Amino acid sequence: MRIFTNLQKVVLSIKKPHILLFILIFTLGFFACFLFIFKHIERNGTEKINHNRVQEVPWGVKKINAASIWTSREKQKVKVAILDSGIDKEHKDLKGKVKGEFNPINMTLTSDDDVGHGTAIAGIIAAKDNSFGLVGIAPDTEIYSVKVLNSKGKGSLDNLVKAIEWCIDNNIQVINLSFGLSKDKPLLRGAIDKAVNSGIIIVAAAGNNYGGDVDYPAAYEKVLSINAVDRNNKIANFSPKGKIDFSAPGVDIPILSLNNGYKTESGTSLAAAHVTGVISLILQNRDKFGINSKEDIYNQVNHVLFKLSIDLGKKGRDEIYGKGFLSFK
């Protein structure tokens, strides 16, 4: 997904990754690209599972080794806000997970998901550990649904800023932003800086830009920019290059879909959700990971993430894998 700009309006739109429409749109003279690329293609190559009877542990959850932390949870509450298309709160794998909501698009309405993207992100982060469906990276996470995309997958920069300010006012600890803008916007930069300075960790998708530049806000200094890899730690072909902090599972990811559904999709948005889940587990277990205060929380968490990272690609940090793949070793 990427943002279209038109005077004061910013439009967020969900599109399929392989489309050569990028080139056509630029040729026709549109000023902004797709904010966020999300692969709405179900993969038939993955094992078919009856999720009504069996719980699947997605390959990303296994590869990150998240379950090794579940048994040692200190049970500290962690509040994660998903700024997206809303969340299907009635999905059987998410019932009871959403602890609060905010809809800056229409303050009189709830944050129900009409698109499905926010539901997918919520499931990767915190789907319940039960006997069916999928399980998320950090099932004990408290989820807050903040709707910035309408039923057409569109929204405004003003509402995005309102959403970030709501997170500050409501003591959110982690913000997941699985979308981005092609250009730096002072209004967004100011809101992001304010959130970071208040002690919020912000995780953002690097963007599905096929080797192009990293989107904003992922490109900002203290926003964690996440790229996507497959099961074999190979970088996804849709991933960008540039300011990358870490890489995480983002190819052929089992996800929740609307109406108690399940499917498999790909995108850096999904990779970002995995890292948000990892950070939630770290904050749930502050003593274990040496997180000793709210002061300088970004650097403390970033240090822990660096220690958890497995170097990929060129030695040291690079513009593709960042500091490496995150896993609880």
TrEMBL record:
InterPro entries the UniProt entry points to: Peptidase_S8/S53_dom (IPR000209), Peptidase_S8/S53_dom_sf (IPR036852), Peptidase_S8_Asp-AS (IPR023827), Peptidase_S8_His-AS (IPR022398), Peptidase_S8_subtilisin-like (IPR050131), Peptidase_S8_subtilisin-rel (IPR015500), Subtilisin_Carlsberg-like (IPR034202)
EC number(s) stated in the UniProt entry for this protein: 3.4.21.-
Active site: 84 (charge relay system), 117 (charge relay system), 269 (charge relay system)
Pfam families found in the cross-reference section: Peptidase_S8
Gene3D superfamilies per record: Peptidase S8/S53 domain
Required cofactor(s): Ca(2+)
Residues in Peptidase S8/S53 domain copies: 76-324
Subcellular location: Secreted
Keyword Metal-binding recorded: yes
Keywords: Calcium, Hydrolase, Membrane, Metal-binding, Protease, Secreted, Serine protease, Transmembrane, Transmembrane helix
Top EC group: hydrolase
Broad class of the protein's primary localization: secreted
Transmembrane segments: 20-38
GO cellular component terms, semicolon-separated: extracellular region
Keyword Cell membrane included in the entry's annotation: no
MF GO annotations: metal ion binding; serine-type endopeptidase activity
GO biological process: proteolysis
Entry-linked PANTHER family: CEREVISIN-RELATED, PEPTIDASE S8
Family the entry assigns: Belongs to the peptidase S8 family.
Name of the protein: Minor extracellular protease Epr
Organism expressing this protein natively: Bacillus velezensis
Phylogenetic classification of the source organism: Bacteria, Bacillati, Bacillota, Bacilli, Bacillales
